[in-house]
Design brief:
Blueprint: H1 2-40, H2 43-64, H3 67-78, H4 82-117, H5 122-145, H6 147-151, H7 155-177, H8 183-205, H9 217-240, H10 243-251, H11 254-263, H12 268-287, H13 295-319, H14 321-326, H15 336-361, H16 368-385, H17 391-415, H18 417-422
Subcellular location: Cell membrane
GO cellular component, one term: plasma membrane
Membrane topology: Multi-pass membrane protein
């Protein structure tokens, strides 16, 4: 028995180390692309770029609204059956296409207003909006397609695709921004490689699914049940996930918007951790047999280990902040305090997201209204004590929101322990 446990531990250590190494490469390439954009774009154009990227994230959240979580949960039940998994996948893709048009109708007017608020003329607004379309349509399916190799733990082709897309973005950004240092060019250069990578994802998923299967009504009902549970929080998080950028875009200066965008590049540390949990941990939790006696131990160790890794990352980067900020250039090298606040906010968001993902993978996501009510309370308290037109004040508010969300998600997990034990 002990030999079996040791063998399992070795397999886990090997898979996590391989996945982690690959994600370091993926994030390093993405980081280089981000630094290239920061250094080549003027502060004003980088502020526009930050707003556009934030809006792309909002578009993606709204077009998903819990669909990918539903696909993961339903796919985890039938992952060994090509026909049933194909039906789950195509149902998810069908729903995302329908949600996409709603997301566009909501976000494009908001994007135009925020760009105008920061001084962009109408031509710039149109060009930036148009440049977002390729990346948005690629995002409609890539999150769903990735679920198939994740469930089968066929991780290597998935990561190779991510590395290739990242290198393509780096090369395209470098070739275009030297000659055309405009925000819409940077956004467009980022989106084109994602379309190519999307095509590769379809080929990676192909051996595990029957693509001829049509969207299934019963699967759609189950996915929509998950969507209805998550949708209110998805709509709320679409606006609140990047609340720092939203508030600075409305109340702050163009320089402050550029600063928060530049500092956010160092969230790659938590992106690496998030990618590992998304690729290795959450699919395995979704697949756990209801009769398994080690479910709670596995869930608890996943949360604790992620927390300690985030704690080490925050501590180490805080000590090295003068050297880290030098990478961004002279415009951002004095933001030591703000940098530490960004790290703390990112760590809280990472751990909170993991806890929420675990609950969702087992079919009991945190009630949307609890999250919204808690975050509104945090925003109200934060608005009374923090200055919302200063970067440090906005980041302090972000930390308060992240801490509140973490507490709510942990409470949901704890209160549903009996369900997790029996299902």
């Amino acid at each position: 028995m002990q030999a079996v446990q040791i063998a399992k531990a070795k397999r886990w250590a090997k898979q996590i180390s391989i996945t982690g190494a690959a994600q370091i490469i993926v994030q390093a390439v993405g980081f280089l692309s981000g630094i290239l954009v920061i250094r080549l774009l003027p502060v004003e154009q980088y502020a526009y770029y930050t707003i556009a990227n934030t809006m792309l994230g909002t578009m993606t959240i709204l077009s998903d609204s819990g669909i990918s979580s539903g696909v993961m949960a339903q796919g985890g039940k039938v992952w060994q059956d090509k026909k049933k998994l194909g039906a789950v996948l195509n149902t998810g893709l069908y729903l995302r296409r329908r949600f996409a048009w709603v997301a566009l109708s909501i976000t494009i007017p908001i994007l135009s207003y925020l760009l105008w608020k920061q001084g962009a003329d109408w031509i710039t607004c149109v060009l930036i909006t148009a440049s977002l379309i390729p990346a948005f349509f690629a995002a409609l399916s890539d999150n769903i397609l990735q679920i198939v190799p994740k469930l089968h733990q066929n991780i290597t082709p998935l990561q190779q695709n991510q590395v290739t897309v990242g290198i393509g973005r780096l090369l395209l950004s470098g070739l275009t921004l030297f000659a055309f240092p405009w925000a819409f060019v940077a956004v467009f250069a980022s989106g084109i490689p994602r379309i190519w990578g999307n095509g590769k994802l379809k080929k990676i998923a192909e051996p595990y699914i029957d693509r001829s299967q049509r969207a299934n009504t019963s699967v759609q009902v189950e996915i929509m049940r998950m969507v209805k549970r998550i949708l209110p929080s998805s709509m709320y998080f679409a606006l609140s996930a990047e609340i720092t950028v939203w508030l600075l875009s409305i109340f702050g200066t163009t320089t402050a918007v550029a600063q928060i965008g530049a500092l956010g590049r160092f969230s790659l540390v938590f992106s690496i951790i998030s990618s590992i949990t998304s690729i290795v941990v959450l699919p395995r939790i979704a697949r756990l047999n209801p009769k398994s006696e080690k479910k709670l131990f596995f869930i608890g160790m996943s949360i604790l280990s992620t927390f300690f890794v985030c704690l080490i990352a925050v501590s180490l980067l805080s000590v090295l902040s003068p050297y880290v900020l030098w990478i961004l250039g002279d415009n951002y090298s004095s933001l030591k305090q703000e940098f530490v606040l960004v790290l703390i906010a990112g760590a809280l968001k990472m751990v909170s997201g993991l806890v929420f993902g675990i609950s969702t993978a087992r079919g009991k996501p945190t009630n949307s209204m609890h999250i919204i009510a808690g975050n509104i309370m945090a925003i109200t308290i934060g608005a009374l004590f923090f200055s919302l037109n200063e970067l440090a004040g906005i980041l302090s508010l972000s930390i308060l929101i992240g801490f509140t969300s973490l507490i709510i998600n942990v409470l949901n997990l704890f209160l549903n322990l009996k369900f997790f034990i029996n299902n």
